[in-house]
């Protein structure tokens, strides 16, 4: 396999030679400003001061921001970064090449020349979901994951952290503040911007100077812990002002709350960020955060929000399958500001019974001239399971033109620990958006089986399903050898054989989906037996299998297999 298949995101330009640089002992040197790149290499490879093979890390401002070059040959490797972040990303590419399996050598990298830089300035995640927040350990691991895949932003905004939202005025207890400080330090080590978000809109009296002072005091507390970038969120709150002082100050006309939100942002920028010498401007989420049309709220925000404030927006709706460049342009025009995409993918807080393990799809890759700062993806409650989708987000945001969802998904499955062990489950839970067919391939197979077992190559519906399927192993699709029944039996058999004792964090998070998959596969197989006249298979057994499958809270193919089973039972004269 090509060594480049182990690198996510996909580099802009890369050539790989046939020779290898063996990394059994190497000396690592570097520009003092690239200390984190040097540290990452030293931690992973060691530093043999007397070794003849050298890895040298340099800086060259002529490259695009966050860009790098990597050249590896017989005598060593040279990484040149546009800036410290670029040098760090070059180190991550070298380490990814070193992690690729090689049958001939131990730890090595192929001779190569790489020239690489990102398309989107903002690439990251926002822990902004409802439900159980990630643990401290999960956040720390997520920051390391982000560094490996060149995601440069993490936004701390868990809806169910009371000190972020409901009790925003109250300072963090010392123990939690210390954990925030650890996150800030780890983010810096991984060249990840740590953005601290506050969501005061449920209760804030926007016009009250004491309330604004309380907001600044909370920001001051986390500044002392190392935070240097902030966001104010006004999402998921009543659209109209609720406090009488605010109505008096900002009026009661439609969209008046935008004036209040703009005033709070302006006060925060002028009286907190500016005096502290903050390097980056504020980011905010408006109450009207989805859709592309102008509104009274957006008109006021455009006129009154400071020009340098970045506005988050979720797309044409809150959770969407596709976002076009025209959508982005229209949104930016409606807000009168540059926008960043708060992408509610692969978030599952609207349906905790499901996990979304497929690739990012439907996002425009032709963004030249589009006023989009970048993308922050909102993940699932399940931190490890989110990394499959987030790996593809990293791939998309770095190199738009090369982004191929199916190929990116293959790489993600290869790179996320434990994903290959659970590949049939990953495939069964890969559809997006949430309203989409949960498995076009299996739906097409079920349809073909019910249509008298049509051969895959003869069924138009089956072929359509195969064309739309993108199994992570590259072998998906119903167009293989044998009839539709044989193929369906094989696919359900893969689900039925999922291991229950896989050791990864991913497997632990997906533990309740594995038995759900087992029972759903058993119901489908029982229905196939009944349809094909397998001796001893009875309608009562099929009904019992379906009942077991549907008793699980975890949703695996619930919109695909049960309708098939019920149709089989109906044809057998036993409607379920």
Provide the fold topology.
Layout: E1 13-22, E2 27-30, H1 35-45, E3 54-59, E4 68-73, E5 76-81, H2 84-99, E6 108-116, E7 122-127, H3 136-148, E8 153-156, H4 174-189, E9 193-198, H5 209-224, E10 229-233, H6 244-250, H7 256-276, E11 283-285, H8 296-304, E12 310-313, H9 325-335, E13 339-343, E14 372-377, H10 383-398, H11 405-415, H12 423-428, H13 440-450, H14 460-468, H15 484-496, H16 505-509, H17 513-532, H18 539-550, H19 561-571
Parallel strand pairs: 2-3, 3-5, 7-8, 7-14, 8-9, 9-10, 10-11, 11-12, 12-13, 13-14
Antiparallel strand pairs: 1-6, 4-5, 4-6
Helix pairs in contact: 1-2, 3-4, 3-10, 5-7, 6-7, 7-8, 10-11, 13-14, 13-15, 13-19, 15-17, 17-18, 17-19, 18-19
Provide an overview of this structure.
The chain has 576 residues and is α/β, with parallel strands linked by helices. The protein has helices at residues 35-45, 84-99, 136-148, 174-189, 209-224, 244-250, 256-276, 296-304, 325-335, 383-398, 405-415, 423-428, 440-450, 460-468, 484-496, 505-509, 513-532, 539-550, 561-571, and strands at residues 13-22, 27-30, 54-59, 68-73, 76-81, 108-116, 122-127, 153-156, 193-198, 229-233, 283-285, 310-313, 339-343, 372-377. It has an 8-stranded parallel β-barrel with strand order 7-8-9-10-11-12-13-14, surrounded by 4 helices. Helix 3 (136-148) packs parallel to helix 4 (174-189), helix 5 (209-224) crosses helix 7 and helix 13 packs parallel to helix 19 (561-571). 50% of the residues are buried.
């Amino acid at each position: 396999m090509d060594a480049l298949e182990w690198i996510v995101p996909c580099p802009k330009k890369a050539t790989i030679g046939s020779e290898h640089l063996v990394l059994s002992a190497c000396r690592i040197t570097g520009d003092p400003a690239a200390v984190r790149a040097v540290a990452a290499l030293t931690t992973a490879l060691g530093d043999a001061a007397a070794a003849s093979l050298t890895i040298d890390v340099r800086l060259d401002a002529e490259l695009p921001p966050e860009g790098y070059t990597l050249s590896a040959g017989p005598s060593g490797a040279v990484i040149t970064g546009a800036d410290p972040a670029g040098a760090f990303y070059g180190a991550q590419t070298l380490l990814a090449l070193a992690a690729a399996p090689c049958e001939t050598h131990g730890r090595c990298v192929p001779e190569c020349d790489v020239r690489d830089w990102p398309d989107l300035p903002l690439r990251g995640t926002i822990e902004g979901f409802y439900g159980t927040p990630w643990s401290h350990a999960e956040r720390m691991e997520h920051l390391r994951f982000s560094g490996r895949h060149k995601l440069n932003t993490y936004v701390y905004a868990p809806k169910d952290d009371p000190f972020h939202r409901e009790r925003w005025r109250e300072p963090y207890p010392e123990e939690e503040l210390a954990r925030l400080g650890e996150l800030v330090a780890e983010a810096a080590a991984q060249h990840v911007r740590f953005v601290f978000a506050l969501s005061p809109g449920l209760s804030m009296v926007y016009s009250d100077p004491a309330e604004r002072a309380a907001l600044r005091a909370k920001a001051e507390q986390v500044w002392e812990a190392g935070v240097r970038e902030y966001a104010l969120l006004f999402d998921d709150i009543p659209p109209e002002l609720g406090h009488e002082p605010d109505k008096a100050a900002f009026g009661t006309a439609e969209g008046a709350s935008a004036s209040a939100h703009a005033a709070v942002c302006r006060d925060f920028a002028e009286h907190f960020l500016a005096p502290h010498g903050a390097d980056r401007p504020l980011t905010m989420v408006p109450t009207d955060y989805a859709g592309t049309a102008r509104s009274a709220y957006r008109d006021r925000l455009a006129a009154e929000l400071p020009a340098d404030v970045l506005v988050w927006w979720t797309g044409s709706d809150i959770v969407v399958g596709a976002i076009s460049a025209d959508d982005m342009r229209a949104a930016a025009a409606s807000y009168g500001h540059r926008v960043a995409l708060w992408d509610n993918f692969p978030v599952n807080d609207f349906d905790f019974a499901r996990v979304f393990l497929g690739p990012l799809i439907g996002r425009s890759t032709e963004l030249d001239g589009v006023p989009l700062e970048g993308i922050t993806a909102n993940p699932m409650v399940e931190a490890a399971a989110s990394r499959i989708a987030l790996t593809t987000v990293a791939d998309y945001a770095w190199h738009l033109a090369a982004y191929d969802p199916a190929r990116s998904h293959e790489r993600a499955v290869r790179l996320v620990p434990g994903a290959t062990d659970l590949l049939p489950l990953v495939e069964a839970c890969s559809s997006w958006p949430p309203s989409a067919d949960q498995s076009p391939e299996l739906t097409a197979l079920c349809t073909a089986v019910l249509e008298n077992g049509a051969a895959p190559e003869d069924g138009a519906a089956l072929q359509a399903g195969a064309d739309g399927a993108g199994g992570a192993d590259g072998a998906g699709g119903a167009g293989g050898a044998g009839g539709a029944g044989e193929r369906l039996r094989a696919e359900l058999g893969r689900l039925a054989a999922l291991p229950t004792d896989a050791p990864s964090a991913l497997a632990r998070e997906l533990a309740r989906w594995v038995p759900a998959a087992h029972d759903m596969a058993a119901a489908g197989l029982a229905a196939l037996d009944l349809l094909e006249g397998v001796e001893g298979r009875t309608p009562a057994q099929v009904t019992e299998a379906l009942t077991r499958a549907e008793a699980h809270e975890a949703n695996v193919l619930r919109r695909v297999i049960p309708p098939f089973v019920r149709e089989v039972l109906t044809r057998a004269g036993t409607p379920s």
